């Protein structure tokens, strides 16, 4: 079955991620991190994903508690969703900023896999 991509970050973080966290809380807790996402441009926004909570949560805005913050433009973010290897390229081009614990950024693919519609 073809995986349909969210039309924008808002759909991903407001609809698909909450569904994924509800359906797979154990997988989310395996990631065991708090992320802040700051996605600029049309269709973007700020969200905090707390994968240490029971149950794991995602909320609009930056809670200030993130262990790893991801900052990227919406266009580049969409590229990351379609191509898992794009993140490293964008990072080295200075288009993706990671603050906090860089090792947690390596677990992002595991996080996004939870949100993919089956």
Topology:
Layout: H1 9-23, H2 25-31, E1 34-40, E2 45-50, E3 57-60, E4 68-73, H3 74-82, H4 86-92, E5 96-100, H5 102-105, H6 108-115
Helix pairs in contact: 1-2
Low-confidence stretches: none
The order of strands across the largest sheet is 3-2-1-4-5
Give me the secondary-structure category: alpha+beta
Total helical elements: 6
Mean pLDDT: 90
Count all strands and give the number. 5
SSE arrangement, N to C: HHEEEEHHEHH
Quaternary organisation: single chain
Can you summarize the main beta sheet? 5 strands, mixed
Name of the CATH architecture: 2-Layer Sandwich
The share of residues in helices is: 40-55%
* CATH topology tier name: Nonspecific Lipid-transfer Protein, Chain A
User: In angstroms, what separates the terminal alpha carbons?
Assistant: 8 Å
Global geometry: globular
Q: How many discrete domains?
A: 1
